[in-house]
User: Fold this.
Amino acid sequence: MLVWRKGLTVHKDPDDIIDIVLDYSNWLTGSNTVDGTSTSTAETGLTVDSTSTTTTTVTSRISSGTAGATYDLNFNMVDSDGQELNRTVKIKVSDH
Assistant:
């Protein structure tokens, strides 16, 4: 599980299918929870296979990518109070 920080980069092989899990528990206040309408999107070349949520996290399952390329994986978290938080994780693809 990842706590977002500026410049966060995750490394993957082009053949990997991995989950990127962002934890928003430090950002949520009171009884607010992550809403099921939260999404994740990626630049062309990286595939978002699915997005799921818990009360404190957003998970993006990603695959593909070209070795040597770096992609933006964008998370849009919506909380139960309607507030939104947008974060980007860099995905660096390389053959392992």
Observations:
- The two ends are 22 Å apart (CA to CA).
- The chain has no helices and seven strands.
- The chain has one domain: 9-93.
